[in-house]
Write the structure tokens for this entry.
Amino acid sequence: MDNTKPAGEDILRVEHVSNYYSDNGLGILRNRKRSQVLQDVSLTIGKDEFFGLVGESGCGKSTLGNAILGLIPYEGKITVAGLEHGRVSRKEFTRHIQAVFQDPLSAMNPRRTIGDTMKEPLMAHGIGTPKEQEAAVRAMLETVGLDASYADRYPRELSGGQRQRVCIGAALMLEPELIIADEAISALDVSVGSQILNLFRTIDVERDFSMLFISHNLNVVYYLCDRIAVMYKGSIVEMGTADAVYNDPMHPYTRLLLSAIPDYASEDDGDRALLERFRPPVEGACAFYHRCPHATDKCKKVPELRNKAYRGEEEHLVRCFYL
Amino acid sequence: MKKGTIEFRIGFILTGIILFLAILSVFYTPYDINAMDKTARQLAPSLQHLFGTDNYGRDIFSRAITGSRFTLLVALSTVGSCTVIASALGLISGYLGGPVDEIIMRLIDAVSSFPDILIALIVVTILSYGKYTIVIALCVTFVPSFTRIVRTATLQFKNAEFVRNLRVFGVSDLRILLVHIFPNTFPLLLSTIVIGLSNAILAEAAMSYLGLGIQPPTPSWGRMLQESQAIIYNAPWAAIAPGIMIVMTIMGLNSIGEGIRKRYLA
Amino acid sequence: MKETLLNVKHLTLGVTERDGSVNKAVDDISFEVRKGEILGIVGESGCGKSLTVMTLMGLMKDDVFVMDGQILFGQDDLVRVTPERRRQINGNELSIIYQEPMTSLNPLIKIGRQVGEPLRLHRKDLSDAEIDRMVLELLTEVGIQNPGQIMKSYPHQLSGGMRQRVMIAMASICRPRILVADEPTTALDVTTQAHVLSLLKRVNEEFGTTILFISHDLGVINRICDRVLIMYAGKIVERGRTRDILNHPAHQYTKGLIRSIPTRDQKGKDLICIPGRVPSTMDPREPCPFAPRCGHTMEVCRQTFPECRELAKDHIVYCHMFD
């Protein structure tokens, strides 16, 4: 997983995607407002690239994942392996993109065996005879580090880590070009999460696929991914190689995020994270304006995402006037 | 002990006794159920007549266990047909949502806004008396509540994460609905069916009591209760026997239903 | 040595499983909480850390019961107190905050009233006006900027971080001797987490409240705790000062847990993780519960649970490697 992968064709292209969420939950008790979740998001993921998307809850990172999977409506253009949503059937689309979600237990039908669940994608696409499907499932179980006999067990009989291995195996069954991992290790115990991270790395060596790894944990994203985008309030505020974003963060929000991560090894009490300035929000200002320690009057407009890489080697996009 | 074991035991014992008697009545009854005996009218329970005799001198025990056959048959066919119809309506309504859901649910609301007895009366009147007209009548009154339950379960699973995952796999909607969502509604549906059975028995008794159910001389528990009414002060046992049978069946079925709820749904 | 405030002696908790069998979820643990400290309890799911504090609060679920042991708190044994005495203690001398502040607040009652509730129960001599004044003061102290307005709000109108501040205010309004914090920042974003941690630290320093802090995150523990207990499968396996444990872990489980966390310099390398899975209470236990996952298992590990070994002052480990 070096950072100098050849820039091949793009597996995923997200171009100017926006998404609105209309809140009409309780009718008269709530005022209907159309709030924007994604604001003009663009990104591309190259072949065999691991791309990390980081942000706090409600920043729109999972919404973007669901939009890419075609599970929710959006404005803009998303193409996966050259296919655009709406132009091809959902079934055709799913051959190229699969997903792993946060909670592996609820991601499986509790009344079907592991084998049944893993066979489902093959059956949906009519791949192989029942015998071949059976064999493929058993081989896949071994690939994700489980015994082939697990095919006959039920999800509740497995531990959290084993279930997540099954979900990863199921996502790999169709040999997709892109896998979206949405908080795939967040619900797991620390010692099990690290096993799953290792598994992703092993599979990456054996197979060709790209991954959009969505997480709130910047440490994990840095560890696993080649490039990172940081999202705040529905837009990307910083994007670049993992090293650039993690070791040389430029946007004040990224810096805040990094300093807030509690580290078991440092003596530092992390109070730098408290350097936030809270000021009343201004309509039409930079999304981070009300918390930014560096905001000036200039920041009452929305900044563009611009390349700030000073050595001009790798692209390092930042959405900030301060720099 | 697993949760619900006590309920299951009580339930199976009670319903077991009733079922045994019902099956027994096919092969053997102490007396002919319709044989009248002027010399043996309104006899109190004794060794000869376990539950006594009625106004015509007929043996109540024989009639009560034979009656269970008809009552249970009506209840089973009502709940059975109702389950099929309600599952189809509930699954379609819950999964498709939107206008289809709206139309089905408003129709269901319309049906359930009339008193059950009134609907049953209308159905019986329209279809004229047949032996099992009451099954259709009861079915119509039961479908709304069953449909709502299937629909609620469908809605719950429609938004489940595993369904989202199946969509990502590229599985078709029909398969998601029939193979993945429907079986997950079974535990809830099963407890509804069991409780539904006991409600159907009560409803059949009520209908027969009103003279809308099984026609004489065929015995059913409701019918027997109605016939006992005239002689309730002289021969209370004529009402008590079918009453006990009804209570045992209802308690049995309700305990099973409660057991299912405790073990599989709680 | 500081005064001991709470003393847990040989606590053993049983759990009734769905099939009616009884398993030990917490197995003969003993520890003490010292006055004025922040004591962390760390462990993965099912290690018994939450059950232990729930027993402390007398809030066990129906299927959990005390099989053996004592929890000495002042004159009382919290395992055997009468319901009346328990009502006097809870909220007044012992209080708790949870992971999900939204579900711990009554959605229909205004914040001001809820925060004042413990005072209304335990301090009958105070008038409503005095209580309101104290609530207002306390809300200001926990870093709420417009306390007057917040007091008139309902829980759903507040953000997650705000709600947790409100919970902390509510839990500390009677100046309890011990505040139990059960994963209080797990549901929060990292930046909010930093604020809540610094607030808890202030509560500890300014009010002198002893805090029992449950977490699975060693980073968070490092930031806030003076001492820490490491729990695994119902046993305490190591305890000591936080810095000692994190810098010089002795137990193989503690070592594995620390190595499982991806850090800056591990990018591109495999994580060294603990093999196997986190045991559930249903799994059969070895005398030393970590034996099946430990790389250094000896014959004796499968025969007896190790004796307590004091490696350094206040650093205790339960492992046969130190016999």
